[in-house]
Design brief:
alpha/beta, about 190 residues, six-stranded mixed beta sheet, 6 helices, 2-enoyl-CoA Hydratase, Chain A, domain 1
Length: about 190
């Protein structure tokens, strides 16, 4: 019986240490999780929707735009944007929702420190854009970077093999140069 007590005590201590560790991880993750500030309605029936930081998801912004659009007590919406841009699809989705909202209510985009790329794209859907003189804005565009490491691989004696289901499945592969047709295809995607 005496031989089992140190083992049980050790397991108990290990369990407590693991529990404290898990609790610490949970608390730290709650402190540092990225939160989108909640949009608010204030004053004389003006809805405020914030687009802050990198645009990675449209769901919450779209939801608030719809909510304010359908709320009869909201007469106009201020879209507060402080974003360098982000995911193209999410920015397009928010932009389309701004256009829908604009059909029913006045939408004013208020630009913060930066409204570039997708942030500026979203603002373009508003009835009016207001910016500070120091606001960094503009730069709607897309860029693709590819590295052609074909010669380096040859020097190092590395050979690559590609198995693909279509002629463009390996466009931009570092194993070979890009063909004129592939370059044309990608340029059309960017344009």
């Amino acid at each position: 019986m005496k031989g089992r007590r140190p083992v049980l005590r050790g397991l108990l201590i290990l369990g407590v240490v693991l529990g404290v560790f898990v609790l610490a991880v949970v608390l730290i993750s709650l402190l540092f999780r990225q939160q989108t500030p909640a949009p608010i309605a204030f004053g004389d029936k003006i809805g405020v929707v914030e687009v802050i930081g990198v645009i990675s998801d449209a769901e919450e912004t779209v939801r608030w735009l719809k909510t304010f659009r359908e709320d009869g007590s909201i007469k106009a919406i201020v879209l507060r944007i402080d974003s360098p841009g982000g995911a193209v699809g999410a920015a397009q989705e928010i932009y389309r929702e701004v256009l829908k909202t604009r059909e029913k209510k006045k939408v004013v985009a208020s630009l913060g420190n930066v409204a570039a790329s997708g942030g500026y794209y979203i603002a373009c859907g508003a009835d009016k854009i207001v910016a500070n003189p120091g606001t960094l804005t503009g730069s709607i565009g897309v860029v693709m970077h590819f590295a052609n490491l074909e010669e380096l691989f040859k020097k190092l004696g590395i050979r690559g093999y590609v198995i693909k289901s279509g002629p463009y499945k390996d466009v931009g592969s570092p194993w070979r140069g890009m063909t004129k047709q592939e370059r044309k295809l990608l340029q059309e995607v960017i344009d």
